[in-house]
Specification:
Blueprint: H1 4-11, H2 20-33, H3 38-51, H4 77-95, H5 104-114, H6 119-134
Length: 136
């Protein structure tokens, strides 16, 4: 599991109603639930930081409509973050290879799905955040 220090590096400056340490703890818990390794945990944290959404949009899920189910706990920061991260984790499981180390191409391919309007920039930022955390 990615260290708290690594996740804090990735989350530095995130738009949150909780502490960055609490966000990192929630990310570790969701990652553990999904059986994610360090790289996948860092990617989840990097997506959270790159999206940097406010209440109910922490990971960008549901940005296309206010009534989207992923936004239903916007008034409960921890519950909202868990729901958002669960959507991220499910998408990662469905669209990324688990049998090898993720490459920049894998992250770009995921970015086309997650953030189609700015996929190249999004993927570069997510990759950079992951490298920042991996150095810890």
């Amino acid at each position: 599991m990615s260290s708290l220090a690594a996740l804090l590096l990735v989350l530095s400056g995130v738009n949150t109603r909780m502490t960055e340490a609490k966000e990192a703890e929630v990310i570790q818990q969701v990652a553990r639930t999904h059986g994610f390794d360090d790289q996948w945990t860092l990617m989840m944290a990097a997506i959270r930081r790159e999206e940097n959404g406010g209440a109910g949009l922490e990971c960008g899920v549901g940005s296309d409509g206010f009534n989207q189910q992923a936004r239903r706990f916007a008034r409960n920061p921890e519950k909202s973050l868990r729901i958002q991260l669960s959507y991220v984790a499910g998408s990662m499981e469905n669209h990324l290879p688990r049998d090898r180390y993720l490459t920049a191409d894998d992250i770009l391919t995921f970015g086309v799905r997650w953030c189609p309007k700015n996929a190249e920039s999004w993927a570069a930022n997510v990759s950079g955040l992951m490298m920042k955390g991996a150095k810890e």
